[in-house]
Recover the amino acids of this structure.
């Protein structure tokens, strides 16, 4: 049976408001961080989800264990809600997933930069060789 679950946590990281999108799908966990700027209203968040959900860049997935779904005592649920509303409640899985995504982006940038510099060096070498040939043509 395929299960899917998503959550969004809005946090204030000075000086911007950020959204932490998390999704679990078939015992796989992924996270994505989005910077909103000023405090987003509910309507803006809903509009953002409708327009940009498919274009969000989630981190590489991490294997998780299956959660057991059970009824929760209402008082315990209320305490859990208050705990999540306290500032600085980024889950460790989210931090790991975002760190993995950041490292992946850095690796992509590094390889792209390496390819670009190598192409520039080859172009310079080709131009120097061509210039050298043109100098010796008249002699």
């Amino acid at each position: 049976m395929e299960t899917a679950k998503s959550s969004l946590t809005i946090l204030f990281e000075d000086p911007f408001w950020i959204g932490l999108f998390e999704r679990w799908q078939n015992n796989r966990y992924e996270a994505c961080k989005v910077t909103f700027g000023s405090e987003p209203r509910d309507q803006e968040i809903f509009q953002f989800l409708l327009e940009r959900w498919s274009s969000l860049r989630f981190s590489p997935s991490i294997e998780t264990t299956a959660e057991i779904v059970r009824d929760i005592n209402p008082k315990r649920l209320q305490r859990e809600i208050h705990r999540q509303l306290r500032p600085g409640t980024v889950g460790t899985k989210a931090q790991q997933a975002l760190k993995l995504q950041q490292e992946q982006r850095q690796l992509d940038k590094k390889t792209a930069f390496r390819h670009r510099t190598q192409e520039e060096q080859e172009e310079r070498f080709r131009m120097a060789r061509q210039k050298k040939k043109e100098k010796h043509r008249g002699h």
